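Translate sequence into structure tokens.
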Amino acid sequence: MVHREAITQSRLHHPNVLPFLGIHHETGDSLPLTVVPYINGGSLQRLLNSGKLLDKNEFWSILLGISKGIEYLHSLEPPVIHGDLHPGNVLLNEDGDPCICDFGLSRIRHEVSRTRTQRQDGGRVRFLAPELSDSPETRFRTAWESDIYALAMLYFNVWSGERPFSSIKFEWQVCIAVVNGERPKRPAHTANRVTLPNRVEDLLWKLLHEMWDHDPHRRPGIQDVLKQFEAAWGGIKPQPTPDPTGTPPHSHSIAEAQGNQF
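Result follows.
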């Protein structure tokens, strides 16, 4: 498992994907360990558990960075499927930028296409797509579609401030609910979650429904997800800070550009 994870990570180079430094072997019969940089901001799960209220910019930055990391993984040739995406597998650096980690369940697409997944259940049930259920009728190959489903649940977790299916106590019950087509309810407006404009929340909710569609073949690819997410966010992106001198932002460079045309 460790060597497979190391092989996978050794080819990954992206600011939102945890870099791989090497493998460390202890003496004796101990298992080898992958060596990665220390990320001092803790995990996204830790941040969510702290109860900290995210502002709009933090919400945007975290979800965009994770999505960019998944876009990179899926764009590789052959594509890399993470297979275990959830807040515990996202680290935050000191600036709050996300970094996807833990590729122990990742699969390289051409390897998966030959056999059905023998999942080792290191994933988190609340983020697992219905086709990854243990039910023989629904067992499916790990594929990019299952990453999209997990990403939808992660979006929901960060947006609502609650883990998916928080009203369901046992994970085996969550598994049954998901296979039966149940999905989380739209987050209510409460004081303990990020508040977004109604238009943005409507578009985000529509996107989540597409991403966690029961039929994996109906889910959008990550590039389409990013396109819709950025479009939904377009109305509330941070605006440039006004220049204290009163000069409009970028006016100097615009004037220079105009002057260069003549």
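Note: Residues 56-75 form the longest helix (20 residues).
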